[in-house]
Amino acid sequence: MRLLHESIAGKVVILLFGAHESIAGGVFNAIERGKKATCDTIQMFNKSNNQWKARKLERSEIDRYLEAIENTGVTVSCSHSSYLINIASPDEALREKSRKALTEEMRRCQLLGIPGLVIHPGSHVGTGEEAGLAAIIESINRMFNELTDNSVSLLLETTAGQGSNLGYKFEQLAQIIDGVEDKDNIGVCLDTCHIFAAGYPIVEPGEYEKTIKQFDEIIGLNRLRIIHINDSKREFGSRKDRHEHIGQGHIGLEGFRNFVNDRLLKKIPMILETPKGEDLSEDIENLKVLRSLVD
């Protein structure tokens, strides 16, 4: 593990950097790929992302996964839900299918000991934002009511606001959280590319501080569990979700310097979701760049 340590007020803080890694061939392979990519921690899917059906997690696969974590020291900070899921859908059948799929993914996180499941809040598909937000709240409450002995947090991801996607305003995430009955297991994943595209400035230090303060006042930094740390191919306020390598997009190195040196965020895992090939060289380079920005 390549952990960076910084002394803050006499305390040693461990900075966790990582990336989303593939589970092709078994969930345990994501850990091995994380090790190869120099990750301290990873995000992964816990099932095939492009299928509704989830292959059963056999005990042998779970054991290999846990052994890989122990042997490599690479942890799993979160899983990401399938992009097929839309718990805001006005189509009752699709919304129900999405809720059941989400519930299953939460159960799989429980089996794997993954503390959080990241989800895009959903798309209202023309019915309006308030109707979409109400559907999300209802779906989440029904899901939590079905889960027993749950220790997994559902993490609402900030979005770019593309199309009819919800979650591009901090106020929308706060409204969802306010409506969720299980306050202990609801949190937020902040995506740097997404908030930049949604119109939250993060490049200039003063503007960055205002944005983080706004997040804290509206949602609360105590709800922030994961940061997706991605540059943006598109310009500020574009409402387009297009990830770029660190320092090669419109956010630039100085924007990421703000994040990795913010004392308020030192305990939050920072996960890359940037383009990459089979050899993971892009992950290695992006992580190297991020670590170089730590003062």
Tell me what you see in this structure.
The strands form four sheets. This protein has an eight-stranded parallel barrel with strand order 3-4-5-6-8-10-11-14, surrounded by four helices. A two-stranded antiparallel ribbon has the order 1-2. Helix 1 packs parallel to helix 2 (59-72), helix 3 crosses helix 4 (129-146) and helix 4 packs across helix 5 (170-179). The longest helix is centred in the middle third of the chain and has 21 residues, at 92-112. The protein is globular and about 45 Å long. Helix 1 links the parallel strand 3 (17-20) and strand 4. It has nine helices and 14 strands. The chain has a single domain (4-292), classed as TIM Barrel, CATH 3.20.20. By secondary structure, it is of the alpha/beta class.
* DSSP summary, beta strand count: 14
The percentage of residues in β strands lies in: 15-25%
Radius of gyration: 18 Å
Return the structural class. Answer: alpha/beta
Helical content class: 25-40%
In the predicted model, the low-confidence regions spanning at least 5 consecutive residues are 5-13
CATH class: Alpha Beta
Mean pLDDT: 95
Ends distance: 19 Å
Number of DSSP helical runs? 9
Order of secondary-structure elements = EEEHEHEHEEHEEHEHHEEEHEH
Looking at this structure, what is the CATH superfamily?
Answer: Divalent-metal-dependent TIM barrel enzymes
